[in-house]
Amino acid sequence: MTHSCSSRTAGNKALRLAVLLIALCDFTVFSFAQQPLRTLLVGVDHRTVISLDGDWHYLVDQPPARGLYGNDGKVRDNGYALNTHPNINSGPHNDEYDFATAPTLEVPGDWNTQEPTLFRFEGVVWYQRDFDFEPRPNTRTFLHIGAANYKSFVWVNQMRICDHEGGFTPFDCEVTSALKPGSNFVVIAVDSTREVDAIPSVGIDWFNYGGLTRDVSLVSVPERFIDDYDIHLKRETTFSLPNAKTLAGYVHVVGAAAGTSITLRIPEAGVDVSLLTNAEGNAPFEVKAKKLDLWSPQDPRLYRVELTAGLDKLSDDIGFRDIRVEGTRILLNGKAIFLQGANVHAEAPYRTGRVCTDEDVRNIFGFLKDLNANFVRLAHYPHDERMERMADRDGIMVWSEIPLWQHISFDKPEVYAKASFMLSEMIRRDRNKASVILWSISNETANNPTRTEFLTNLANEARRLDSTRLITSALNTAHRKGNEMVLDYPLANVLDVVGVNEYIGWYDKRPEDADAVQWTLPEKPVLLSEFGAEAKFGVHGGIDQRWAEEQQVNVYQHQFVMLNKIPQLRGLVPWILMDFRSPGRNIPKLQDGFNRKGLLSEKGEKKQAFFLFQKVYADHSVGKAE
Ligand code: GCB
Questions:
Q1: What is the pTM of this model?
Q2: How far is the CA of 597 from the centre of ligand 1 (A)?
């Protein structure tokens, strides 16, 4: 396996540190070795690829998954991975499986909502598909997997190609030497088993959809190819609109000798420059655009950016903007903004299941637009890249998060290594998306020194990887002194923007108690990153009747009284846009396996609270930009 990610930026040092940490950790007990971040082709959705989406044969490997794990716990390369065609009808009897006649699942897609017997299945499912391929000389080919939840083990033509841990980030495995002319096959074992030391850990409030949940493709590139680039508006010490014309970043070419020339063209911005790679194949640059319109929700301007390195050509659509914090204000292109948003899980509207199609994404953004939102928190893990693409086009600002969600083993170095790895994957995939303004490093973690050290290190890594964005986290451990809610613990010091989650009126106290609550918060921009109450669409009653739409509205109205008294409040992010599956939500007839805090039901039915926010956002009646 080629490790083509060389040391080109300070960020990469952090990445290598994470890789080293992973290498140092003894994973043999788990029979799993996370491999270093491989190429991870940036902008892969803008390349011409051979799609392997469609029907894949599958076999279920019920726990303890002896098809995948041997008695010693190690991954078996000599079982289903071989995809032999056993003698079923004649001759000596051998293996008892057969992909060729096995049923199929559609990729991308979770297995839970495709096959009723797999609805509650958490464990190992084996996927297999044949494909034709004609290798071309002087090219390299990668199998790109948009995401597979949670661990993946990949074989091509019986050769073990790679492993990956993490259910929400993409990975590439080089398959050049495994491919042959004509018919080939790929086998992927996906294990969705929850583990205490995984990220997320075992207790989650969403549905653990398993499978090859995002697009799978084969990507062929010339021997020298662009694997990574970062093209952004240069961050000056102070922002000035007339001077905001300089673009900066790097383009990295795998296999390039020092001095290899790369062209960077942005025709509509009057940029056409030749860059030279250094010994690491990296070409850092700074270039002045002749004219540049900055990206904003009002004008989500994207530029066609063309990169050429020898035979490799790639174009991407990129917006340029400046995001920073000044005191308690958030400034976009120098102007104070207030974020009017909603939380979103990657739950497909109408059909349920994991979001994986253009239509799912269009539906979600349709709801956001209808709500008059300018912001979305993509909870609690990186979503399908289509979401950020749509956000870029639609002018919706994004909070993107790694799945460090409650109950994390902060004391374990291997858990830190995983977290740092996921952070690198998330940032690498989306650093060229103008819509993404916030990287979130965690959600709701207990306040103690071990966690604070862990998250401080992670925040520092995020900053090293990307110094152009703001770092945040959703905190829920404010302590109460009478009517005062005080959030004063040290983690807030390392964040640019502080996310506060609270459920006064639902988990905590009565809705009207919010009116008297006074918050003591850090002198930083604060987002109410979660607040809300459950209501079942169609249930009506008094304002104090639990599950009634009227009560959900009542909770929010009292919240607004409280929130209007927080001077540094810079955003509203109700929990949550749409009801979502969560197997722990077991109140029959009301929840039926869904968290009902949505402003809409999973069928897209608008509850009264949806209209409340629609109006508040249209009138800008809660919260101020400065
Ligand atoms: C929270 C969590 C979120 C849950 C939500 C709830 O604090 O961050 O993941 O789904 O509360 O509904 O309980």
A1: 0.94
A2: 9
